[in-house]
Amino acid sequence: MKISIRGKLLLAFTAIILPMSVIWLLDYLNHAHLADAVNRIYTHPLAVTRASLKANSDIMAMHRSMKDVVLSSNKEEMDNAIATVDSLESRVFDELAIVRERILGDEGKKLADDTYQVFKDWRPIRQEVINLVTAGKKEEAIAITKGQGADHVRHLDAKAEELWMYAEKKGSAFKLEARAFVISSAWKDVLAFITVILVSSALALYLSFSISSRLRRLKSAAKKMAVGDLSQSVYIKGGDEIAELGEEFNLMAKQLSESYSFLVREISERKRAEEAIAKSEMKYRTLVESTEVVAWEYDWKDQRFIFITETAISKYGYSKGEWLKKGFWADHIYHEDRERIVNHCLRASEKGLSHDFEYRFVHADGHNVWVRDIVSVEMEGGEPSLLRGFLIDIDERKRMEEGLLEAKEKAEESGKKYRTLFEGTNASVMLLDKTGFIDCNEATWRMFGCENKEEFLCKHPGEWSPPYQPNGRASMEYADEKIAEAFEKGGLLFEWTHIRKNGAPFQAEVLLTSLEIDGAAVLQAIVTDISKQKKNEEALVKAKEEAEEATRLKDKFVSLVSHDLRSPFTSILGTLNLFSNDVNLKLNSDQRKLLDVVLKSGERMVSMIEKILDISRLKTGNVDMKLKFLDGHIIVGAVLSSMSFSAQEKGIRIVNEIPEGMRIFADATLFSEVIANLVSNAIKFCGKGDTVTLFVPKGRATTIAVKDNGPGIDERMIPDLFKSEIKTTTSGSLGEQGTGLGLPYSYDIMKAHGGELTVESEKGKGSVFYAELPHVKPRILIIDDEPEVREMIAYCLDEVKAEIVEAGNGLEALDVIKNNPPHLIISDIRMPVMDGFSFLKALKRHDKMKSIPVIVVTANGQMETSEKVFRLGAEDFISKPIKKDDFIPRVRKHII
């Protein structure tokens, strides 16, 4: 028969409680008997003795009172004496009744009855004496009192004394009986207690052996599993909880073994993916570094390069550290070009336009180098965030152009000098007018694969081209347009696809410059073969796309693996928690400690998987951010209230210096996670007596800084601090462990907000983390057909410090929202063209607009109107006229 641990414990409980109950019952009966004995010892003799003594005393007093009756001199004295006799007689009757009631034993009962009968026999004598006294026969009364009355009194006194002696005798006997009974009861209790102890000990030993031996087997298997032997299984007999635990252990071991095999396969695939990414990155890097082109990335907000290829170091003489310094680029533009170039880049970047420009760059040895920058702009939140591009050395071309320009000027003075320069340059230079080529140098006809100059000049410029250019335009027609444009503008630079004599196409950069030779307007064309450059650029783009695709596949792979791992680990942890919280499961300290270790390790694993999933969702854009205006003080306060206990435990003081009403625009849940991660890290690395301070840095109204005076961060770790693929986690001041993913996750959250997460730290002096959000000014749209009403509402909103946008009806409002969505809409109902009801319907049907909160303001305050606007999706309803002290708090619900 299978008995559970609960059943075994119930049997043990019954085996202990049942004997104890019997002992208690016997003890109760013995004590009842003992109480009766005590009652007989102390109540019976004492009551009888006292009653006997009182009766004796009252009898004597009654005898004296009878004498007073006989000897009374007047009627008043006689009446008083008779009353005293009656009172004493009544008391004696009562006392004798007590004796008769409480005396024990047949002998005692008979003695009490005899005494009572003697007293009753005395009453007629007493009455006779009173009658004689009343009749005036005192002598006869005295004679009876001294004779017959005195005899009865002596007889009564003797009987009372006999009663008292009997009570004393019985009391002594009862004392001896009680003592013997108490000793007997004590020995019985001792024997019963010893019996219960022996039975309980035997049962406890049995249960201990039954439970602990099986738990030791579980413990041994768990230890082997902890060191990596996942083939463990345990067979435990019985149908109790420990047997069930053994079955669950075997199931867990099987799942762990399967999960381990799955992980091995997945890790192998991940390694192959990482190797593919590394190969792609190496291919990209090799391709970039094998060219003379410098690839770069530039952080717009920090105004510094964040990536630069090695070519920049070897070609321009500056170290990588110098290139990555803030302001390096602008500082090293030749001073005559700086203002023009910086302004040009600023204007184009703010509009998000790709652009390119040429300027002189100052080499490390001090000389100027002509370069060309080709720039693409990445926007976030309507502002530039990252610039990418290629820096191309065009110094040779510029020198050549300068030489050609100089040659042009000199050619006007001396045709001979011009011809010498024209023919002597290695660049492909030609002259043409509106009809075609006039002249070319040797480098030109050799570039096109001709045998001589005449073979080249006999064709139209469009004939040295494929039928169509890459943009789909016919080459002949397009070439004529470019020539005409160059004549009109005085010069033109463009890319063109040419073909050589053998039909092979090549990419060229064409510079057309308008000249005047011998009074005739001509164009000088400088053609540069950029085929290799184009191939390099295409290879760079392809390598970049391959790297991005590999990264995307890696993120997707990590997301899928993390999701598949979370379910079995959650199930395992749930089962272990059930065992841990089962009060009926008796585990010793070692077993409990081992179970706690497994639980904590599992919880850390699940936490790490959750973080990986969060990071993956952010990187793949699967997070639906709910951006709204928040009070930074309230957000920080809520985070700190959940962390105050852990800080107090370590003796760390947390100071919240975030001002009330600090306006930020963020997703409350995600931004709270960023602050929580930063504060948690500060607590982790600080020790007793340290302080963690949250404040707003001067001049950075939308930045929350978390400062601590902990140990600081090694400067070598800072560049990798926010990279999820590089493990930077270290133990806290008390050995606390983390996943190492909190900061990368926070960094990705801030990037998703269009913000930035940065750090300043010095070893031994603490750290400051800055969570900077974009500055967003609230935009409120007021819709009303009356300009005066719009003006009045705008005046009320002045203290909100928001940008006010106005519309005269619902249709105008929809156009405004499409171009520039507001953060809050305040709308009237009765308007021409499109009223408030129709506007609400149209707004809430649009996916991108329906989340914008709407406050309806109308003179129609009827219940039906308010119910309808709420049904259509409005957030609030106010009746006109507007009261500012009621209106502003409603607005503050959406814009602090």
UniProtKB/TrEMBL annotation:
PAC domain sequence ranges: 355-406
Domain PAS: 280-352
Family annotation (Gene3D superfamilies): 1.10.287.130, 3.40.50.2300, 6.10.340.10, Histidine kinase-like ATPase, C-terminal domain, PAS domain
All residue ranges annotated as the Histidine kinase domain in the record: 560-777
InterPro entries associated with the record: CheY-like_superfamily (IPR011006), HAMP_dom (IPR003660), HATPase_C_sf (IPR036890), HATPase_dom (IPR003594), His_kinase_dom (IPR005467), HisK_dim/P_dom (IPR003661), HisK_dim/P_sf (IPR036097), HlyB_4HB_MCP (IPR024478)
Keyword tags: Kinase, Membrane, Phosphoprotein, Transferase, Transmembrane, Transmembrane helix
Residue ranges constituting the HAMP domain according to the UniProt record: 209-261
Transmembrane in keyword set: yes
Class of enzymatic activity (EC top level): transferase
Protein name listed in UniProt: histidine kinase
